[in-house]
Structures are given as structure tokens and as C-alpha cells.
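Model: You mentioned two targets. I'll fold them one after the other.
Researcher: Yes, keep them separate.
Model: Target one:
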Amino acid sequence: MIRISRRITLALGLAIATPAAFALPALAADVTIATARGDVTLAAKPATLAVFDIAALDTIAALGVMPAGVPDKLYVNYLAEVGASAAPVGTIFEPNLEALANLGPDLIVIGSRSSTQGEALAPLAPTIDMTIGADLVADARARVLAYGSLFGREDKAAELVAALDAKLAAVQAAAAGKGRALILMTNGPKVAAYGKGSRFGWLHSTLNLPEAHENLNPETHGDAVSFEFIAETNPEWLIVVDRAAAIGEASSAQATLDNPLVKGTIAGTKGQIIYLNPTPLYVAGGGYTSVMGTLDELLAAFGG
């Protein structure tokens, strides 16, 4: 990896990166990228990188960049090689400041579950928040391009974005006219439904997939629903995320939904219940490989 020293200007008055935090004129080796808190100017090609957000780590790894520090548990199998080659510097929620100080990163990337840690991390290195918002696919695309600029991987970033756009178009075409969908997340015996504007709402809005029930609560935990609600909604498709399986607990979604009310829906009678691979979607949602994997699953389910 090319090693570029961190600039003294970025070490002065460090705070979580915001446009105001880096108001000095950009130098030749600087790059300005879009973050969850606005455009930020940083030294290009940081040599020693610490990443706490799994979605960010997913996308950075897809570009071929290997961070030096990562959380102690990454959850998704396809990041195992990244985890094995990097030092553990905390969890996805909380950094280990001593381990991070020993690592001496040139840049720290936070987001989502670690997004509240910016103030604590800022004295150690420039820190950027790359949280993925409700418009997941648009943010995923923007993050690919931002990291591509930051790490000098613009050509690879353009290649990844082109592949993403092609996959999106294929899934949209495959899902067109196939009917309404209801997105469910199970957590043991509990079931919640998600619609547009929610953490899984991109499956409706980006794929033009009609909602079987409109105006669901867009909050993080969705709307708690009963099996009677599912039966009354009677979707053509059920798209299911198993939270227990996503965080490494015993899978239970199929057992939870194995009842006459669910089986009697159009989705149940036609065998149109899609059990998505939950860990990438739940833990690394918005990461490039996560998004592409979910799209592949939907493409296969819709017969694309």
C-alpha cells in the first residue's frame, strides 16, 4: 500500500469530520468526498485505516483496500479474510481506544451502530461518518464513488457502480407485474413488518415492488404484527429477514412462520416466501457486496 503521512493541518483541532472541520484550502494530495455529514476534505490514500462500520468495511474491501484495524467480530463470512489480516480495535458499537492508539490510524471510518463515537475518536485521527441512510441504494452508490476517490480506485469504483446499476435493472424487470410484497423481520417468535421509508424499504422503492400494506411505521424496529395481520394483508410475496440468524443465534424464521395463517396467504400457497440471507442485509446493509448479494437472491426468486 502507498503510505502518505497525515497532514499537520488535519491534526489541528480534530473533531468528527464535518465541512466546517476541514475548512482549510485543499492541497494537491487532498481529496474531497461525500459523507453522511456533508463533504469533507482529507489527505488522499490514507495508509493506516481503521473501520468500525461493517457496511463501510464491505464496500472498502470490494474496492480492494485492506484496513489495518476492524471490529473484533465482523459477522459476514465474506469479510473473514479482512478480519484475519487486521488488528481488532473494538466492537461495531464501541472502539477500544487503547488498541486504536497503538495502531495509529491515518483515518477512522464510523457509521450506523458506531456513529455516536465520533467525538471520542476524533482526538486520535480524522474521523468520518459514513452511515447509510434510508435511501440505501443511492447511499451505497455514493459510498463506492467516495471511497474510490479517497483511495485512488476511481476506475474500480466506476466498474462496481456499473455492475450495481445493471443488477438493479435486472431485478426491477424480473419483479415487474409479479404482485405485492410484505417485508417481515422475525426475532424468535416476534414478527415485525417493514414498508417504504424503513430500514428495508429500499426493496420497495428502488425495485418498484408494490407494498401489500401501505403506511407501515418506518421506525427502526418496524411495526409489530400478528399472523392474523399477515393473513388479512394476503401478499403475493413474503420477504423475510431472520434477525436471530443474522447475529449468529439459532435460525427460527421458518419455524415462526410455519402456521396455517401464513401458509394460507397467496405467498404461502404459491411458495413465494423469500428467506433472504439475513446477516449481510441486517449487519452490513448498504455495503456493496451485501446489496449485490441481496439483489442476486431476489433475482433468482422472481425468476430473472
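Model: Target two:
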Amino acid sequence: MSEVSTAREIGAAEIAALLERIQAGDREAFMAVIRLYQQKVFVMAYSILRDREDALDTVQETFLRLYQKAGLYKPGSSFQGWLLQMAKNISIDHYRKHRKKRQEWETTTPLDDIPVAAEPARDGDSAATDLRHAFARSVDTLAERQKMVFVMRHYNELQFNEISEAMKISVGTAKSLHFKAVQNLRKRLAPVLGIEP
């Protein structure tokens, strides 16, 4: 099987084949799935936990859980949605367990420090950097479900049906939360962009 570089390039049949190989103990197939999805799982975990180390722990735990439960995936549904639902649940459990520690050591790392596939600002382009910081701070202030939908849609590039599956909400609710998130971001960024909200 040829090496695939992104989750977008892999089809349902290929995922099913990889999962079968994982169930048979194939380490290479497991590593291939990790390479395809670790960035998306990290973004999901970080959007909830707001701490790089905690997010990395959650990524590790998510893939360990995948290794143990690969046989539970139902072909025909979105594998990415299923995996991110698992990551979300593990992240929330981790957050609850470590809430006291989080209150004492609350991180200030903004969303724009997440290594996503976006083009980095060129050296000396401070206006672009300032805008990125303002945008990340605005995303951080969104209500939890709005933020989650926005992150899944724009950082993880999920379709609304995949978001609804991962969050266990209807497609209409996912679209509504996304719309509200965009409206709120426009209002918050209007002063920075110098436009009417």
C-alpha cells in the first residue's frame, strides 16, 4: 500500500484495511494511522486542555485506546469523526481529573501557538503576527461548544456531518454553533480590523 501524507487522501477502504492490520498486531499499520491523524487529534486535545504537555499525553492515550479498540469502528461512518470523538472524551476526562492542577497552573499559551498547517508569518511581518494573536485570543473567548465546532471546522477541516458525529449533536446544531462562533469572532475582531461589527 502506498504511503499517504494526509487524512484527506485516505479512503474508507484503506482505513478499514489499516484497522484490520492493527487488530492483527501490525505495528506499521498502526504507525501509518498515527502519522495521518496525530496532528488533528493534538489540535482537538489542545482546544480543550489548553496545555501542550496534557494534549500530548491525551494524543498518546487516544492512539493507545485506538490500538485496543480498533475492532469497534463501524465501517461506513467517518473514521476521523470516530477518532476525534474518542480524543474529545479522553481530553474531557483528563481535564476533570486535573482540574485542580489546571486552576493552579493555568496556561496562557494561545491557540495560534498550535502547530497547524497554516502558513507561518514571515519574519518582520508584525501586523500579520498581531492579527494572528488577536484572532487566537478571540477564539479562546468563545463559548466552549462554539469554540469546539470552530476548531474542528477550521483547524481540523472537518465537514459538518463529521463534527455532528464527533460531538454527538445534529448537523443543524453544528452549523448553528459555527454560525454563532463566526458572528462572535467578527464582533470581537472588528476593532482590530478597523471595520464596523
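Researcher: Noted. Anything on target two?
Model: The CA atoms of residues 159 and 182 lie 16 Å apart.
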